[in-house]
User: Fold these one by one.
Assistant:
Number 1:
Amino acid sequence: MLNIGEFSKICAVTTRTLRHYDDIGLITPNMINKENGYRLYDISQIRDMIFIKRLKEYNFSLEEIKEIISTNDNEFMLNKIINKKLQIQNIIKQFNDIEKQITEDITNLKKGVDIMSFIDKIEVKLVETQDMNILNLRQRMNVEEYGYYIGKLFEIVYSNHFKVEGCPMSIYHDSEFNPEDNDTEIALPIKENNKFTRILKGNTCAMTTFVGPYSKLNGAYGKLTEWIEKNKYEFIDAPYEKYIKGPMDGGDIITEIYFPIKKK
């Protein structure tokens, strides 16, 4: 048996952390000395502690780690780790995109170029859209969940043999943006009109096509808003995005953004 200090030293974990893990039931001492209250750990618990540390390195929360340990199911753990790897890959890609953008900004600043001048290059068009029959799922969701719900729509399409007639879309119904909790309608244009669908009414729209990562879409939104104000239009309905080419298609990501508008 090892006392808490010895266990702490071997596992490279502070005694304060071990007491906290005990309090939340993550890893508890094998026994507690009734005379002095010392926490005693079994040698076999060293592996448990190293496993917990590894999951922490994978950026799992303590709650997730506790769930993995308590479930004690290899397939469950495998799926959790695979999903975590995908999350980390997305984070790495985001930082690679940021590094690329910083490098471009540094180059432009050295040349005396305004690093926000890219907004002026975004082209806005006035278009007339037609009524569209859309298969839709609307609820409050995190922006990271869009792909999941688009997948759900395709499951409905395949199971019912519907005919897809356009790209996946996101329609934003909230008056403000919260990436963690948005009233969002994920949609897919299809030929069939049924209980799963509704008509997205056609409108006059200010539209732009943006080439680049989703994290940079705010520049396109800014340019659209400036254009609408400058040309004396006003918003009349929820804006929406069409995903012409996604990250899984290879090459540049292409997104069309639509703002339904009318003259003031």
Number 2:
Amino acid sequence: MKEADYYESTNGVVVMVEPYSQQEQIQQIVYRILDANLDRTREGLRIIEEWCRFGLNNAQLAGECKYLRQELAKWHTAEIRAARDTVGDIGTDLSHPQEEQRASIKSLLQANFCRVQEALRVLEEYGKLYSPNMGKAFKQMRYRVYTLESSLMGYQRHQLLWRSHLYLVTSPSDSLFATVESALKGGLTLVQYRDKNSDDTVRLEQATRLRQLCHAYGALLIMNDRVDLALAVDADGVHLGQQDMPIALARQLLGPQRIIGRSTTNSEEMHRAINEGADYIGVGPIYETPTKAGKAAAGLEYVRYAAQNSPIPWFAIGGIDANNINDVIDAGAERVAVVRSLMQAEQPTLVTQYLLSQLNRVRPQPEIVQN
């Protein structure tokens, strides 16, 4: 005969409770695991949903989060909830220093996507002990979350690309990181790491640091030329020259969520890049520049053409600085890319703010709709 447990109820009456059998104990443990991971998944999805709703104003992404939460709720039965034992859960006191702070919205979202995906994998496996259909349901849900992550991260990157009107292309410098950070403090949101001559070990180290720096300020980091290095450092995309790999191959390697840009010097190259699926193009060089030694300037006429014919974001580039930016703007440019005017500036923050002020001056401000 099993030994019974005795408990004193709140009114002082002692009651006898028959202990669970071993099978029932295992069942209760499984229920507790399911309950904890259902909670974890729903909470993580809600955090992601709030950013889709309020941060991105994207009804489609927010709606997908809501749909997934509602599907989870169908499995979160009273039977599973009844097994919850918060007081006796040793995991409530476990923590990690990385959970105490988030460096950026991106890191917050990635942490919660990881949380949701891990919890769904637990639900998929332990759910097989609860219901024949539970494992299948959470397997499919896990794949939907992978798709949601790609869509959300890609949408965020492309939205920020459209909002970016000043683009810093770096050049080798002893003050590389200090210069970039100063520009980021001035409001810069788009950086391309460009170094044609350093060893890959140096490029990897510098690009990794720049990616961390850019993401801490909510900016994008694009790698020049090298798709492999873009993947290695988790950059936001790659910029390809006319002699670099085809855009279709780069897209196959990078996926739809990352950004691909292409340099163009004339209207033919511009239309080819657009048709091949570039997310943005460089238009130039507008003026002769040592960065593109020996390459004839495309001039302001190409700027005028791009302003009338490019349906994707484009950046006028080549010899643009504080002295001539308004000529480029008057020709139709809303976005410019610069190298020397920031990399060689004594006060990159102030120069960034000035360039942005000129670019912001020509853009119509969105109308505020009163609710």
Number 3:
Amino acid sequence: MGKHRSSTGMDFGVRVAAVIERGGSLLLVRHQKPDRDPYWVLPGGRLEPGETIPECATREVAEETGLDARFSGILYVGEFLREGRHTVDVTARMAADGKSEAALGNDPEVEPGSEPTLRELRWVSVEELAGIGLLPVQLKERLLEDASGGWAAGEIYLGGGRR
């Protein structure tokens, strides 16, 4: 999905990220975009119009990591605000099927023939996570805080489904 501009000219979107854990490590992806330092994030991306949060998380995990994963709840909701941009960040807990190995995927929003933005995929232990520049910073802090509980999802997602 392209960026959505509201009538105020502000870029507004919902980003859904996925916490996928294996043996106490989290799956992260490293991005490199033009005119920006590389950065690490949880696999994820923008929610498409008409798509539910679980559908978005499943699609983004498949696109970026090649894994089949099922939605098991919402961990966190946050916001990013700066001049001209407002993003609502939803972090979902996903369970990988365990039958396949993660492999670096792609970002379908990148123009054909352009340099890919996804550069690396890595399982990161909690100890390693402390030293990695994961964005957003508040999410990294919360992931470190909640690591001992295994990033268990609460029952806060009420669905909404299709009407």
Number 4:
Amino acid sequence: MTEPLSGADGVWLVVGLGNPGPTYAGHRHNIGYLVTDELATRLGGTWRSHKSGRADVVEGRLGMPGRPGPRVVLARPRSYMNEVGGPTKALATFYKVAPDHLVAVHDELDIPFDTMRVKLGGGDNGHNGLKSLRGSLGTGDFYRVRVGIGRPPGRQDVADFVLSTYSSAERKVLPFQVDTAADAVETLILEGLEKTQQRFNS
């Protein structure tokens, strides 16, 4: 069983948005899962089922060996993208995390592939995961690490595009994009929004 961390020392909740299961694993819509996987590796943690049964989590601390930093809970909701708000709300309640300590990592159509933007607050811009989060949390005032996937080529339907795999050329670059997005999450938590935007907002 996963015990709650103390909310008094500012626990951060980092939620990777995506769809569960192997069918969706390589899709553009699942970039949030890939980034939280990288962060889990950096923390040296293993995904475990949260007691709510609605998400998998990894708990740890950022920072250098011997100089532990903020407590972080990485989360991958087990629900589909349009229902991630419920599991995220449950985790935020369990770990006593306010919206200003919540980071959503997600794909972004309006940003070119291999670029990203980090921001606080905003609308959902047609993204079903963000829409669900805003609805369940009652606010949009959480951090977003928006990982660019670009617009679909030609007349391809947007829904088909986000639920498709990366091109062979993109797959060569993807590990670097995931690594950079993980860096952005760490910088946001350790150094704040302004420095993160200066460094990563392409």
